[in-house]
Amino acid sequence: MTSKIGSTVLGYPRIGPRRELKRALESYWAGRIGQDQLRETAAELRARTWRELHDAGLGSVPSNTFSYYDQVLDTAVTFGAIPERYRALGLDPLDTYFAMARGVESTPPLEMTKWFDTNYHYLVPEIGPETTFSLADRTPVERFREAERMGITTRPVLVGPLTFLLLSKKTAEAPDSFTPLDRLDDLVRSYAELLSELHHAGVEWVQLDEPAFAADRQSAELEKLRGAYERLGKLSARPKLFVPTYFGDPGESLEVLTSTPIEAVGVDLVAGATTTNVLSGLTGLRNKTLVAGLVDGRNIWRTDLDHALATGATLLGLAGEVAVGTSCSLLHVPYDVEFEQNIDPQVKSWLAFAKQKVEEVVLLDRALHEGREAVREQLDNARAAIEDRRNASRLRDEKVRARTGQLRPEHARRGDRAKRRADQRQALGLPPLPLTTIGSFPQTSDVRKARAQFNNGRIDRPTYESRMVDEIRRVIELQEELGLDVLVHGEPERNDMVQYFSEHMEGFVSTENGWVQSYGSRCVRPPILFGEVSRPDPITVGWAKEAQGMTDKPVKGMLTGPVTILAWSFVRDDQPLAETAEQVALAIRDEVVDLESAGIRVVQVDEPALRELLPLRSELHGQYLEWAVRSFRLATSGVSDSTQIHTHLCYSEFGEVINAIVDLDADVTSLEAARSRMEVLDDLNSVGFANEVGPGVYDIHSPRVPEVGEIEKSLRAALEAVPADRLWVNPDCGLKTRGYEEVRTALANMRTAAVRVRDSLN
Ligand SMILES: CN1c2c(nc(N)[nH]c2=O)NC[C@@H]1CNc1ccc(C(=O)N[C@@H](CCC(=O)N[C@@H](CCC(=O)N[C@@H](CCC(=O)O)C(=O)O)C(=O)O)C(=O)O)cc1
Ligand SMILES: N[C@@H](CCS)C(=O)O
Ligand SMILES: [Zn+2]
């Protein structure tokens, strides 16, 4: 048995190379297959992953990186943190797990939120003084044994105890003074119990992920980190402990971790600012293993191996051992670039997905420890691809550069607010508390099937387009019938709100099979932004005109904003993001202007990812928010005062971006507020927000249809904070994941509630 950790990856995709797990999960939830079949698919996927990673030559293969839904939920279940309302359902363990993830009719799911600054979402554990931690589930031990039976020794991976508690929220019953971290000692006791069982099962290394320490942390939290790992480190019978931080600069936590008895630390050398200077100051590192995260786990570019090797070489003297690893789990990239048949061959030669990244890790580790000569040919081939990308003339478009070069402050500034308001009132003639939706209507399986048939050549473009027009007509008629005021076309033609736009812009390539898990069984195919971005032709104008031609009410044009396009794409890493954002902003600006010219009087530019891209370290916030806000304003400032610009933000707590929301200067901002009970309006008031606002009046993430009374209550609560002439009425996000029946009733209830409140206004 080797005692070194060796080359490794921190985690691997788990949805299946052909989304086998997605299909099995959705079949199980729909009652089409049973638990046995679901478990069989899961076991096959795990076996396949372990075999591939082992055969690729990694020094250490991770296990317990598979999950039926989410790794944070798995950790909660492992340590018994199951809220009583789910236990009380009396379901078997797997269905209890799915009830926490997805809810059942009587009981909503746990809250879901962003995993740091990624587009992956985790379920938020609820921890209170009453939570009983225990080693309730032994899946990590079972998975280790499962791989052992294949002859593969693995390294179980778990979310570390600090990160687990820092990501949890307190239970409703907990006193105000309580924070989940107060329960650290009890939780660490259960981790200790698990470590002991893993040790007795023959586990040599365990990985405990602590990415929470790549964000700002208070000194008390750092002390708790020290205390926890000192305690785990002092256990007499335990596996060796490997604790990576990732997604950014570990700051002081690295010194803390290296002062404890753990055997290995991991640093993200791609997203982290950790320099060799910092590492050289860490005397505690000299008798530990450093897993150097040199291969980017979050982007899809081939690694510049010469550069990575140079960094690796400077690390060699600083730690007891240096092993090459990925910067973070490979969960955030697709499986295999070789599945792609349609990507431009030159661009394809610049790419590395998960499988290729494993090869890079193995190669780098060999080059570092055996010398370059041992792998000269592979290094030469890799260098040729890097140089080809560096020198590619297509990566510069003089027309795009000339345009960005001529930008002046006035390009990001709209007319006077009061005049805009007056002009828009006149142009639109809306009632008080106007009713609208966020854009998408249910994406029925008929719509998705039609798109699949069109993509496979089984139906032609006119047939596909006429089906989309039929769907738009149905959506417009429904909104007319429901009495909404500003209508939408429903977005049926969009596979995804980012991918769709990227497919119509220069500078991007799309993948056929580049699926990345976003949450549970839901996946996205992030486009690859490789070059200079521009918009050769109008993208949405035809659909918007079609819809506007079906009604006298204003139809809202619907676009995705530059920040969100960047956040949900794989972006180029050879220039600052702010520069790329400017190009995307101008492409969207062209579309906004063309919508206006086509007679569209209201245009919404969605920025749900504004908060997501906020850097984990607060010292970087100002710089980010400056370019993020400017790019939105560049995109939306090309129109006249009478054109009403909306924006929509969701999936986040807005606290840290609240000033930025004001600075976006959209005429109307719709926000996900159903779950934060309108508190966001007080926050907006406190920073002088004076434009119109539509705080979501019901939660679209749940199939539950809201009652008139509860919507009315929300609206009256909103009116406490915002005068009626600035308040809009809308759901809190798009309706694409819902069904028509529930949407029809929910929107009808929303209208009844709004009419009641309108009637009581005078
Ligand atoms: C709003 N959200 C989004 C995020 N990121 C994005 N890039 N886009 C988003 O909308 N991040 C934050 C949230 C996260 N949420 C979600 C929500 C929903 C999904 C989702 O539903 N994903 C779908 C795939 C969507 C898609 O690309 N659809 C394609 C069809 C592709 C497909 O699977 N086709 C089928 C055949 C079709 C059929 O017969 O039904 C096939 O190939 O087998 C399309 O519409 O053309 C999902 O199912 O996972 C993701 C993130
Ligand atoms: N317009 C989009 C925004 C989602 S965040 C939709 O309605 O789906
Ligand atoms: Zn939304």
TrEMBL record:
Entries under InterPro entries matching the protein: Cbl-indep_Met_Synth_N, Cobalamin-indep_Met_synthase, Met_Synth_C/arc, UROD/MetE-like_sf
Keywords: Amino-acid biosynthesis, Metal-binding, Methionine biosynthesis, Methyltransferase, Repeat, Transferase, Zinc
Residues that coordinate or bind L-homocysteine: I438, G439, S440, E491, D606
Gene Ontology biological-process entries: methionine biosynthetic process; methylation
Residues where L-methionine binds: I438, G439, S440, E491, D606
EC number: 2.1.1.14
Binding annotation for Zn(2+) 1: H648, C650, D663, E672, C733
Signal peptide (residue range): none
Spans annotated as Disordered: 396-441
Domain Cobalamin-independent methionine synthase MetE C-terminal/archaeal: 433-754
Active site: H701
One term of GO molecular function: zinc ion binding
Membership in a protein family: Belongs to the vitamin-B12 independent methionine synthase family.
NCBIfam families: met_syn_B12ind, PRK05222.1
Functional description taken from the UniProt entry: Catalyzes the transfer of a methyl group from 5-methyltetrahydrofolate to homocysteine resulting in methionine formation.
Record-given protein name: 5-methyltetrahydropteroyltriglutamate--homocysteine methyltransferase
Gene: metE
